[in-house]
Amino acid sequence: xxxxxxxxxxxxxxxxxxxxxxxxxxxxxxxxxxxxxxxxxxxxxxxxxxxxxxxxxxxxxxxxxxxxxxxxxxxxxxxxxxxxxxxxxxxxxxxxxxxxxxxxxxxxxxxxxxxxxxxxxxxxxxxxxxxxxxxxxxxxxxxxxxxxxxxxxxxxxxxxxxxxxxxxxxxxxxxxxxxxxxxxxxxxxxxxxxxxxxxxxxxxxxxxxxxxxx
Length: 214
What we know:
Elements: E1 6-9, E2 13-18, H1 34-37, E3 50-51, E4 60-66, H2 69-81, E5 85-92, E6 100-104, E7 107-112, E8 116-121, E9 129-138, E10 141-148, H3 155-163, E11 183-190, E12 198-201
Parallel strand pairs: 4-11
Antiparallel strand pairs: 1-2, 2-4, 3-4, 5-10, 5-11, 6-9, 7-8, 9-10, 11-12
């Protein structure tokens, strides 16, 4: 029940802790999506909240919704202007040699009838920049913090796999796959001119196992 996953709510903003496995938009396979469930998140308002940005189906964590049209315009503009701060946590299939760094790797979308679509590094692609910090190392894997400065599709997943050479654990497209992808949107900060910023954190979910213990 999404009502039990509310992290923040006021008259114009609502942040949920999106569970992994829930797509934001309706997929072709007919799976229930967040778009089908927003009607349950009215909380007394006549209209359901609007989806402002996206998280991948297998990514969990902070997802911002706008509770009125004006807020939706302002929040969307903030994403386009790059003033929204987003923080992700991920476990990598290996350990980066450095403790921190910046990945600047342009990205492009390719597709084929047999393999579907995916994102690849491409010099003529859209610019994409991610700051990263190594937080912990266990059993040959690393917990890292990703802070994207741009918001390209699959940016963190491709930057991990191609920029660091270490895919995210469980990534079915750019890594080995597995029972769960360990990528989580842990924090979002949305600036607001007339109110304090929306600043919300979502704890690591159970699928991260021992990493959730800190």
